[in-house]
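Aim 2, interim progress: modelling of the GLP-bound target.
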Amino acid sequence: MSREAAQLVAKSIPPGKPCLISFPAGDTPKGMVEEFVRMVNGGDLDISHTRYVSLDEWVGLGRRQRGSCAWFNHTHILDRLEKPFLEYHLIDGEASDMAKECQRLDTFIAQHGPLDLSVLGIGMNGHLGFNEEGVDFSLNAHVIPLSRTTRSVMGKYFDTEYDLKFGITQGLAQIMAAQKVILIASGPHKADILWKAFRGPVSNRVPASILQRHPNCVLVVDAEAGSRLFSYC
Ligand code: GLP
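Predicted structure of the complex, ligand included:
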């Protein structure tokens, strides 16, 4: 799953042409980003014209807190690249003014976008980034209360107990405007939500279902995550 996703990412980055890409944080993309870093450092992939933007962040956390999205981006990607991105933009979850932080994200995406590639994971409730149940599909960057499901699983990312109540995220309008979307998922715990998102109705009760309307969305799943979606998995 990780290798396939990394190969697709590499194919979506045109050599020598400016482009804008975004990866999720979390457990799912770890193998993919490792392969991505290996390709870049080995000279197989040129990202010197590529800009990178983060997808989401826990409000209240910054790059110093292990488990934050900024921490993930630095530790697993940015600090390991021997040949860096042309530029990157990470959401600052510790910013004092979250409305301005949303604006900063919107401005970066508006200036350099739309996204050429958005790689996404899927939450247990079908969220994309922090576009939680009930989200308005037409939004750009915004701050949103974390759902009960997200709050119940978030402990796995942190070695400290944080009382986090909000997330800041790219909005679905920005994600849907991406030239290409790759949704990655692994493990049996993702099988049901993938089925709801891609075989159920398009509804903001399951935000990922909006991807059924994306003209260029690829699912990359392992056999366990795909077990309900695809009979041959
Ligand atoms: C997290 C993040 C998402 C991520 C998703 C799945 O809470 N907000 O961006 O894609 O949930 O995470 P994981 O890959 O750890 O299952």
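The chain has a mean pLDDT of 97. The CA atoms of residues 10 and 170 lie 22 Å apart.
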